[in-house]
Specification:
single chain; 510 residues; alpha/beta; TIM Barrel; Rossmann fold; 2 domains; 8-stranded parallel β-sheet; 6-stranded mixed β-sheet; elongated
Length: 510
């Protein structure tokens, strides 16, 4: 866990340890990003290498000289192509722009290890660059072997050290966090989508800074400044903060972090909900004790695979052989639950009398299993259809229903058809798992909630069929999870409003 009572460090109080990254081709755009960043933090990195020409660099630094707020800290970076940046000039040109940055009011400069090694005596102190030096190393391919601790060099060639490394596994990102706990004036930057949770937790674990772009991502796995500060509240997290999350692959589409973090803020719960891209369940589960994870949501493709890792499971989830919720008990044991099946009944039951209805479930994965058992238990006649016929037959046998071949959908009629596949999910929108001539029913329900109006639902409405958005199921299962983890009543109105606003904004931007 993170350091208790750690000193402020070189960048001051926690809110200012979130470093806004400004990067644009023009000085005008960079200036706009700086103004925007100052509303969230007082620490700003200027990516001078992103500006398209020396003329634009001059314009920006002249503007900064006139408009720099006294209370803000600026870091100048002019990273070469070899160091993962965009600057194509030579070493002397790089130093020139760092010197100009000091004249404009920058108190820090970020210098690559490769640049430092090319200098006489391997020191920046002989140059009129910004007085404080952040010595950085980037590895965009992997997380390298790391020492036990990293501190600024003794002779004073640097005031802080940064290591940014691609995390291929969650274990990789944990190695960087451990380094942050043991080091002084050190910046840990786990890169890539796998490293995203560790990037959010870095300040809690002792990193001197956490980076977030105002607009354009400048490194893999970055999330926006607004998200880092306002959604995840990275600057407020402490070793006492409870950690929850969602595990799956893919995971970038999930609005579960927005749903649950909104609930934590509304109910004043000291907790954070993070998205974990998980390819290997064992890799994630090893991180559970170290990160202080108290519970997690399980999505594609782990709803069945997680079962063998559980210490106990509620009977209905065990019977379904599908778990979407795990509670980490005080002794560290894992207890599995399923809130999907309740969500299906609640969402569908508002428009259909379920007992006696004939319902088709398209898909045979974990979500389909939950729906099939829930509907059979509620008295419906459930049929299974899948692109994998063997999987459909296996699920049909397990829940006492029938398997329907895909070709039969052109003639068979149902009271409702449920899509339990991820086809049509963000970002691959505009595709439907079923064609118009396969929809012979009164109601179509899509488990996909992002986008709000999927292509499948659009086709159904065009045919005059009533529709149910996956949002209703998403909200119902998520609210049940929130209650299981916290033992409190979820703030449903706030959580629903936040998710709806995000989905509507996304629709408008298309």
């Amino acid at each position: 866990m993170g350091k208790l009572n750690q000193p402020e460090g070189p960048f001051g109080r926690a809110a200012n340890r979130i470093c806004a990254v400004t990067a644009a081709a023009s000085a005008v755009e960079m200036a706009w990003q700086i103004r925007s960043a100052l509303r969230e933090t007082r620490t700003i990195e200027l990516r001078l290498d992103w500006l398209r020409s020396d003329t634009e660099r001059t314009r920006l630094l002249n503007w900064l000289k006139r408009h720099k707020p006294r209370a803000a800290t600026f870091l100048a970076t002019c990273r070469s192509v070899a160091g993962g940046g965009k600057f194509r000039g030579d070493l002397q040109s790089e130093l020139y722009w760092l010197i100009r940055a000091r004249e404009a009011g920058c108190s820090w400069c970020d210098v690559e290890v490769e640049t430092m090694r090319r200098l006489p005596d391997q020191s920046m102190r002989e140059y009129a660059v910004p007085p404080k030096v952040l010595l950085s190393e980037h590895d965009f391919a992997r997380t390298p072997r790391l020492p036990k601790s990293v501190n600024p060099p003794a002779p004073g060639e640097a005031d802080a050290v940064k290591i940014a490394a691609q995390a291929r596994t969650i274990s990789d990102s944990l190695r960087l966090l451990r380094l942050a706990r043991r080091s002084r004036n050190f910046v840990a930057v786990p890169m890539g989508e796998v490293g995203l949770p560790a990037r959010i937790l870095a300040l809690r674990e002792g990193s001197a800074l956490a980076y977030a772009p105002v607009a354009i991502a400048t490194a893999p796995g970055q999330i926006s400044l607004s998200e880092l500060k306002n959604l995840y509240r990275a600057h407020l997290l402490t070793p006492k903060t409870a950690v929850y999350g969602v595990i799956g692959e893919p995971i970038g589409h999930s609005l579960s972090p927005l749903l649950h973090n909104t609930g934590f803020v509304a109910r004043h719960v000291d907790a954070v909900f993070l998205p974990f891209l998980v390819r290997d369940l064992g890799d994630f589960l090893k991180a559970v004790p170290e990160l202080g994870i108290r519970g997690f949501s399980v999505t594609i493709p782990h709803k069945q695979g997680i079962l063998k890792h559980l210490d106990a499971c509620e009977p209905i989830a065990a019977k379904m052989e599908a778990v979407n919720t795990v509670v980490v008990r005080r002794n560290g044991s894992l207890f599995g639950c399923n809130t999907d099946y309740l969500a299906v009944i609640r969402a569908l039951g508002r428009k259909l009398t379920i007992p006696g209805s004939r319902i088709l479930i398209f898909g045979a994965g974990g979500s389909a299993r939950s729906a099939a058992f829930a509907l059979a238990r509620a008295g419906a006649s459930a049929s299974i259809c899948s692109r994998r016929e063997a999987a459909a037959k296996s699920l049909a046998r397990a829940m006492g229903g029938e398997a329907v071949p895909r070709r039969a959908l052109r003639t068979e009629r149902f009271d409702a058809i449920l899509n339990a596949t991820p086809v049509g999910m963000h970002p691959k929108v505009g595709v439907s798992p079923l064609a118009a001539d396969e929809l012979h029913c009164r109601i179509v329900m899509d488990f996909v909630y992002r986008p709000l109006h999927t292509e499948l639902l659009r086709i159904a409405r065009k045919k005059g069929i009533a529709t149910i958005s996956g949002l209703e199921m998403f909200l119902a299962q998520g609210l049940a999870q929130w209650g299981l983890w916290t033992g409190r009543q979820p703030p449903e109105r706030s959580m629903r409003r936040a998710v709806m606003a995000a989905l509507r904004a996304e629709e408008k931007s298309r």
